[in-house]
Amino acid sequence: MTFRSKAFEIAQGRVAPSLTPPTEKVADLYGSNTFSDDVMKTLLSAEAYTKISNAIRSGSTIDREVADEVSAAMKSWAISKGATHYTHWFQPLTGTTAEKHDSFFDLTIDGKAVEKFKGSALVQQEPDASSFPSGGLRATFEARGYTGWDPSSPAFLMDNGAGGKTLCIPSVFISYTGEALDYKAPLLKSLVMLDKAATSVCQFFNRDVDKVTPTLGIEQEYFLVDKALYYARPDLLMAGRTVFGHSPARGQQLDDHYFGSISPRVNAFMVDFEFEALKLGIPVRTRHNEVAPGQYECAPTFEEVNLAIDHNALLMDLMQKVGDRHNFQVLFHEKPFAGINGSGKHNNWSLSTDTGINLLAPTSKPKENLRFLTFLMNVVKAVHDHADLLRASISSAGNEHRLGANEAPPSIVSVFLGNELTNMLEELVNKGEITLEKGENFYYKLGITRIPNLQRDNTDRNRTSPFCFTGNKFEYRAVGSSQNSASPMIVLNTIVANQLLEFKKEMDERLAAGEEKKVATVEILKRYFTESKNILFEGNGYSEEWVEEAKSRGLSNIKETYDALHAYTTERTITAFERMGVLTSRELHARYEIELENYVKKLQIESRVIGDLALNHIVSTVVKYQFKLAQTARSLTDLDMLEEAAPIKEIIKDISTHIVIIKKLVHEMTEQRKTANNIEDLFERAKMYGSEVKGFFEEIRYHVDKLELLIDDEDWPLAKYREMLFLE
Description:
Elements: H1 3-12, H2 26-29, H3 37-43, H4 46-58, H5 64-80, E1 83-89, E2 102-103, E3 105-107, E4 113-115, H6 119-123, E5 124-125, E6 145-149, E7 156-159, E8 165-175, H7 184-202, E9 212-226, H8 227-231, H9 234-239, H10 264-279, E10 284-289, E11 295-300, E12 303-304, H11 305-325, E13 328-331, E14 345-353, H12 366-385, H13 387-392, H14 397-400, E15 415-416, H15 419-431, E16 443-444, E17 454-455, E18 467-469, E19 474-476, H16 486-512, H17 517-532, H18 544-553, H19 561-564, H20 571-580, H21 585-638, H22 642-677, H23 682-693, H24 697-710, H25 721-725
Parallel strand pairs: 1-8, 15-18
Antiparallel strand pairs: 1-2, 3-4, 5-6, 6-8, 7-8, 9-11, 9-12, 9-13, 9-14, 10-11, 14-19, 16-17, 18-19
């Protein structure tokens, strides 16, 4: 029995484990492993609770005395729930989370054991910064870096799976010289600036607004593969995707997996990780089968952006841990399987005021709709002016496989508003009037009396648009499933804040000149619409016609990551980010270098995996099988069964042809890789990898996948698509 067949046998034998649901109601379970507001209110003095609440709401500084009281309460709470260690939980520019665990246990001078956790340990820790990507901000020998407590994201308890728990404290990560080495620090800065800018614009319409909070709902797509089959695929293990694999006869063409019945084993996994997520305060609400076989999606309730991003990063880690319990490997790669849909992370973003208003929700009241249009058009204008930067924010080696295919938005950044909104904006430009109705009277008449009236939204949903308006929010659909959502959200928050300040500046100038407020607002919005109109597109973003039309409109179609990343270092980007105080020119150049390095390394790993599998797994196995065929053909020939031997000889020739081509291509790819590795200039090296080395991937795959159809099923060394995707 081969390793593959044994793995398949193990996978087939799996059954859904029996789960004992928690005895608590979901509402009681929610947040039970978080140092929540209710916990703080119970354990802290009234003065300390007020100070930390103010810090969370308004960003005021927390003094060390309050930190000491909070740390004592955190320690008491965590230990009472089984925690033995604590860690600053942060998000370095590796794309994953990081943590260094320290024990509460300590010794006094006289050797007595105590449990200790001071305010200083809560506020600040010191991981080794030289071991994380810095993009040249720090030399390798300059090791010092700091993590700092983010009180706006609740501390939580992570089960270690071995009887102990760790108190995790969400934190920023900065270098010794103060530059951001993570996603959270610039994200928090962008949120502060967006709040200030949006609140200042709200003052033109409602002076009761004191705070604007960006909200986010992240839909997470993923694949599940049985652990045994995962380990039977070295490419999945090393590169996160299958570099070889012939498409099965049945894939997703019947559209029967989407929203289909969830298998018991998968459902058990989903229920398990959802309960664990709820304990950590992650408000997961939705689960369903996705389009591709073996693909699924989960989604939470909308939260404040910083918290939503922390929760998504934590959720991905949690899903992997729970997957282990169910003998599943969770795949977050954007394109783990060829020929079927890849996975994205749809970011649904909106703006809410402290008065309970969604600034991106249209109404039937003219004054409120003028406010709605103001924020809508400022977002559109920001995206138009910084489209290449928004494209750069979702660029990666994994997302290159997905963007532009018939499953994900194209590399062209466009905005979908829907016919109703677009027509209304045309009316505004042509007549200076707003004629939008919210749509209370739009009902479908189905002719079935027992079905309640179904209300129609103002806008349809366009799944081919990378940045689409969906009624009361914008959905950025182009984000990759493995990506930290902070990257595109830092960009979106910053460019919108920058644009809102431009709007406020012009409004102030017009009002100072004596222009009436409504007239000034409409005139500015009319110009914004005219200047940004070429980015609005209502049609099929997957079509070739759109590619040509977008070109005629002057829109960028940047397909390669190494080209897209340039947007981080343009004068326009640097000016906006430095004006907002989110990232300096030096920090932006560092992130550009980090992303280029990551791109090169991902393609380098994939190239090595392709070469190793092709020569050491595929060709070696195929030669053995070819020898069996040769013996059979020789025996038939010796028996004068020439006609029967002929097709076998043809198969032998076909196999030989593919082997020769594979060996030649692998050799050429390896030589190109060596050449690329010797290029000093990072961009040129990335370009060589993206244009030359990567160019061999599909060609080698073609010949390997042809061999998969020629070799006896029992002899093929790699787990096949039909085994991985349709096993439940």
